[in-house]
Amino acid sequence: MIRIAVWILLLALTALSLFLFWRTFGQVVHRILHSRRDVDFKIGSLAPRAWEFFSEVICQSKVIRERPLPGLAHAFVFWSFLAFALVTLNHFAQGFGLGFLDYRRGFGEFYYWFAFAFAAMCAVSIAGLAFRRLVLRPVWLGAVSYESGLIAGLIFILMVTYMLQWWLPEQSPAGRALWWVHILTLLTFIPIVPNTKHLHLILSPLTVFLKRSLFSQIPPLVGDEDFGVVSGKDITQITALQAYSCVECGRCTEHCPANNTGKELNPKLIALGMRSYLKEFGNDSEKPILSASISQTAIFQCTTCGACEYQCPVGIQHLPMIVGLRRGAVNTGAWEDDHGGKLFLNLERSGNAMGFSQSERDKFIAKQQFPIFDGTQEYCLWLGCMGSYDPQGREIVTAFASVMKHLGTSFGVLKKERCTGDPVRRLGNDLAFGQLAEANLQAMTQAKVKKIVSICPHCVRTIQEDWREFGGDIEIEHHSEFLARHANQIPQGGADQKVVFHDPCYLGRYRNVYDEPRRVIARAATVIDPPRSRERSFCCGAGGGMVFLGEETGERVNHARARELAATGADTIGVACPFCNSMFRDALSTSAGAGKTPRLLDIAQIAASQCVTESRPPGSGQ
Fold first, then answer.
1. Quick one: which of 8, 502, 585, 608 is 20 to 30 A from 271 by CA?
2. Residue 563 and residue 452: Cα distance in Å, rounded?
3. What H or E segment, with its residue span, contains residue 290?
4. What are phi and psi for residue 143, nearest 5 degrees?
């Protein structure tokens, strides 16, 4: 009778625990499944997704790589959960006299020791993580969450009670008491999970596997009534899944250039804002998200650098959320900004972000004797707004053209160009972006353009990926890729000079191009890296249309980065983006400090200085 009573009690407690778990988790599942479908989402090839799942979920590669010590501790906790799956099943089975692992012999003995090792590592790791969270309190983790302490305590008890059973006879009063402590701790842990950030234990593997395949992919609008993310009915399934998966680790916050320079934007609060909106209002509500749970000011401080998305260990893609919210604000007229309004007007009237007349570009082309692309040249050299109208941008284009001349590569420029639409695409003005993209594609079709090279990584990204919505499918590369491919033909020398290279966000994180510009610089100088480089590069502050908006709050992002670059003591700051060039040019005079101000050169200018100028006209070929 006692045994039957124990079975009934165990079944009742288990049922209660699972009921409480599903009462919350069922609501989460309902909200995700009843959100809008992501019409552009495709699973595509399973192999890349499977590899990413294995690397980031099973191996915890990103967790460890970006924060090695706490990352390794977190990984041990995760691996212990995997190792304990079989132990937990056996533990429940023992309650009904059906235990299937015998720790005294065979596989059971091996597995119990195997789980014991993980339990010991997990206990040490969870204690360390709790100490870091509750005592050290890194600022990017946010306010102390005592639910984290509760969860850590429960996990610690689970591990300790498992290890103690080795020294207590299973059927002794102390052994039975220990078994009950372990079971009750587990049954307490289960319903807490979906009510806390630890929901990521269940959802994040799915989030990583199902995240959009393209970095910072902006989904297309669907139909005339789709204005972006305005209210709950606009939140899609992937967005909802990612919002519920946030682990609140603060990695996105730690690396956000806006947050690092005193702005309101905190990428973590964008995901959490989506989550809190869904919890409070659901996905059928028409209450505006920007008045309910997310700050409009914050989303328009984003430089779209992608540091948040790159750092996130659970697959959250913040930029589609931010751009979606911007779309909603711009397309419904909720966002009013003098600088933004001027930018939109310039693009509408003049076709370029600066508002200059097309005749200014014509004069520049004539002065440099750039041939007009007629379909016979190998490359169409895309000038872009900066290369067409900005004085330093023109210097970069001219330098690059001289290198192409040195290499004997034929090229021409379009007779007329309009802005690719990058700034308005990221600011959320889809109407302006569509008009610009269609006009440019028409011009390229007429000119029979097949292959493009550009000095601007923003233009490269927009032409290659964003124009696809309007039928664009043109081969394009960044000038760093072109120059690196021909690096052996660029004369070498001047290794006594040191150049610190700044990785542009849209070339590095967006395009995964890191070695190519360094290879070009290495032909002329010794390349050094700043403290934050490559994937961890700190933004110049120009992206997301911010170069055209007023940066009114906190320290300027470009000042912070220029100071860091100058502090390396390099003779020259090397860049590979005209926007970075513009931002650092403005910042160096005030941010470089009391020492010598380094020169500022694009990699095309560095390469051009190594080349012997020849007399034949640019773009004529061999």
1. 502
2. 34
3. helix 289-292
4. -65, 150
Q: How far apart are CA 112 and CA 110, in angstroms?
A: 6
Whole-number Å distance between alpha carbons of 482 and 379: 11
* Rounded Cα gap, residues 434 and 441, in angstroms: 11
Is the dihedral angle over the CA atoms 483, 486, 492, 498 positive or is it negative? positive
Nearest C-alpha neighbor of 618 from the set 418, 448, 469, 410: 410
- Return the number of other C-beta atoms located less than 10 Å from residue 91's C-beta: 20
Rg (CA), the chain: 29
Closest CA to 46 of 54, 38, 58, 36: 54
Torsion, Cα of 518, 521, 526, 528 (10° steps): -40
Query: Structure pTM?
Result: 0.91
C-alpha to C-alpha distance for 616 and 181, rounded to whole angstroms: 85
State how far the alpha carbon of 330 is from the alpha carbons of 98, 290, 337, 431, in Å: 62, 12, 10, 10
d(CA 265, CA 302): 7
